[in-house]
Design brief:
Layout lengths: L9 H7 L5 H9 L5 H12 L9 H7 L4 H14 L5 H12 L5 H8 L14 H5 L24
Helix pairs in contact: 4-6, 5-7, 6-7
């Protein structure tokens, strides 16, 4: 008689007592499918240990669907390339894996792709550019009022 009966899945019950949503808790559970070397990178990211390799949750979640043998090839490639996969790259790896086409060479090729946030950018203020372009200078003829034809009225 002293037993309490809980209704619902355990992650839903846990979510009701947590700041995390049911979906977020489901993601955390899915991460347990990662090999320790990759899981440590996610933990380090959460702990903000910037001196260690870090991986965001969403790419790690995609990688958790790879078989252990394919995951085992990742740490070496990540170290040699000095980067972790983006979410898009992790999705690509998962897709190749599901097609039976993921191997260390494919992983390396994907990891060597340039990520949008790693593209070198050059910024310059528009007013500095305008000094050197006709767009920023008024043409002498633009100081004159437009010519009106004889039949136009205001």
């Amino acid at each position: 008689m002293g037993h309490y009966f809980l209704v619902g899945k355990s992650r839903e019950i846990f979510a009701s007592d947590s700041l995390d949503s049911n979906t977020q808790i489901q993601r955390y559970i899915r991460l347990t499918n990662l090999i320790p070397e990759i899981l440590d990178m996610v933990d380090d990211s959460a702990l903000k240990e910037t001196w260690k390799p870090q991986m965001a949750l969403r790419p790690a979640l995609e990688l958790s669907y790879l078989p252990e043998a394919e995951q085992a090839a990742l740490p070496e490639v990540m170290e040699s390339e000095d980067r972790t996969p983006s979410h898009a790259q992790a999705i690509k790896m998962r897709t190749f894996s599901e097609q039976g086409k993921l191997n260390p060479d494919v992983i390396l090729s994907i990891m060597q792709e340039e990520k949008p946030n790693q593209v070198e950018q050059f910024k310059i203020l528009r007013k500095r550019i305008d000094k050197f372009s006709s767009r920023g200078k008024r043409h002498p003829s633009s100081d004159r009022r437009p010519h009106r034809s004889a039949g136009s009225h205001r």
